[in-house]
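ARCHIVE CARD
Drawer: 12
Card no.: 0347
Subject: one protein chain, sequence and derived structure
Cross-reference: see card 0346
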Amino acid sequence: MKRISADLMLTPTGELVAGHQLTFDDRGTIHYFGPIKEQIDEHFSGTVSPGFINTHCHLELSHLENRIPQKNGLHGFISDFLHARKNDPSPDPDAIKNADHQMWENGIMAVADICNTTDSFAVKLVSKIVYHSFIELFDIRKAATHDAYSNGLRLYENALSSQLAASLTPHAPYSVSDKLFSSIAAHNNTTDTLWSLHNQESSGENELFELHEGKLFELMQKAGVDFYDDIPFPTESIQRSSRFFPEKGNILLVHNTFIREKDLHFLFSKNLKDRIWFCLCPLANLYIEDRIPDIALLRKTGAQITIGTDSLASNHQLSVLEELKTIAKHHPEIGTGELLHWATSNGAAFMRLSHLGTFEIGRTPGILNFPELKKAHQQLQENISVHRIK
């Protein structure tokens, strides 16, 4: 049994407090967290918190690091991405393995990971990280719907047979037909599992549904999409996709770079507030759209926020801490305890990982140290580093 203290520790409610003790065993299981009550074995300078939860990643795209130009908008990113995949379709097992290792070293305990192939499965089977694999589906053309669903179902069953947690999930509102959306929802309604959706990542997504114009609309038309006529016009992206939300289970909306107050009011009017989380991936948003979401709006409305890294195709590292630093830079009014709470407790709650996320008796959440973070009101500046204690 080891007893440690630190200048500050993160409580389960997101406060950074002094004078606390954390007691854990060799496996990292928490036996006590509270005010110091006995002799301490080791004191850590700075802050101690549970391990991070990364709620959005594409591990299988790790070989595309530095391959796609920045700040070309989502429509440009999609075009460049497809070009890069065409020229280099083969996965790099070493790149996937290195990315997994990088996340562990960066303090990440669990990852909600998007999959279009089995390329990442071998690494996940031996990883120290807990993964949930979102088997992502899209169809573009109605003639492809049956095959898209069948192929996704095979991939899902492959994951389960490999003892990997998984669920079917749609890619984005603009790339999934009503029929495929319905099939995914029906499948998830029988499994009560996790569900994820890339949401309002660009202004073009709103323009597509509300105006039938814009660069994303033009790109999708050029790609041959043929189901937009089935969608009432004009509509709104969030209203369209919410029709297919599963009846139970946790829902994650990813990116939300262009989400608006009326979209949030609509969602919350549907009694979804306790069942829906909003994942922020600010470094990917800056990489692609050169903009981050309206985080002040999300906080004002009481939205449940989590943190993701996206992929190395749209980021230079897979580090939750770097994502938090980016938010702190743009929003210095947000307390460090709140930011860490998003990246730990909130992520674990979305992923239903009851053994992770907080320092509570019986949990094995991982234990991180931020040596330079010594004051509760201190901002997450560039010099802040993270080191694993457990």
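Annotation on reverse: The mean pLDDT is 96. The radius of gyration is 21 Å.
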